[in-house]
């Protein structure tokens, strides 16, 4: 612990003294010195070349043909399933808590490493900047990320939802059925395999999407990022990032999930949302907003706070020594190892 905290503390203090000369791999404007010399660069999806997009999608498909290692997830067939299954088992404890951002940063890092180390992917995990699409004024079906050739495929056909499936009575649904095009269809040998309620059982089925454009545009608002950047401590930042479980409260995290997944879509299922490959690009953008906020003030590298138990804001709080894990996908780690994207444990940055 001493070594990690020493490095993080040095990163927070060094720029206050004499700035070290930046390396070519580090952006020219960050306030925080890098602890790793060659961070891989996570880029926005549409900035990738078509070849780079294909390489990423092929690596994701490679995970779906690589046998599972998560023995605690009996329903997992392949490595892609492993991540969905671990998320599903821990969902009750990793949302609306102080370590929500840390846990998903850790999961993304493990997923990125699996792509690179097991599937010969040489790039970094891309992210999806929803604001580019929201601001474009284009209908969701025309957003580049949903392109059938260079993206993740589009919306499913419309399917009626029962009152039980739609307990909040959400309106504006446009899909709900199996994604009919793109690389992640049953015809292209992609299935969501883990049973929705019992991770010990396999239940292969199609990927579904249920676009809700009004939810996307209502929840994904620039004002949320303005509010996030105005927060001066992590506890307040994290609370605003995850927001409240309400469709009346602008929230970029929920807006991505439910704007795409809606009521019947895989991405709108809180337990099983990693069954939609777009999950990882969405959460990379959430992580990017945290990383950018951290770099505004180096003291934020060591800033943590928030409840250990969901919604228990007056109860026990996390600190840098609080541990989280990814079951078979990653050992128990203290939060201080997950505070900083450029070392010493992780080594990546965002393009902007």
Automatic annotation (TrEMBL):
Instruction: Please give the name of this protein.
Output: Di-copper centre-containing protein
Q: Which GO molecular function terms does the record list?
A: metal ion binding; oxidoreductase activity
Biological classification of the source: Eukaryota, Fungi, Dikarya, Ascomycota, Pezizomycotina
Q: Which UniProt keywords apply?
A: Copper, Metal-binding, Signal
Classification via SUPFAM superfamilies: Di-copper centre-containing domain
Alphabetical list of InterPro entries matching this protein: Di-copper_centre_dom_sf (IPR008922), Tyrosinase/Hemocyanin (IPR050316), Tyrosinase_Cu-bd (IPR002227)
The record's Pfam families line, in alphabetical order, gives: Tyrosinase
The Tyrosinase copper-binding domain extends over 95-112, 276-287
Which residues are the signal sequence here?
Answer: 1-20
**Does the record carry Membrane as a key word?**
no
PROSITE patterns xrefs: TYROSINASE_1 (PS00497), TYROSINASE_2 (PS00498)
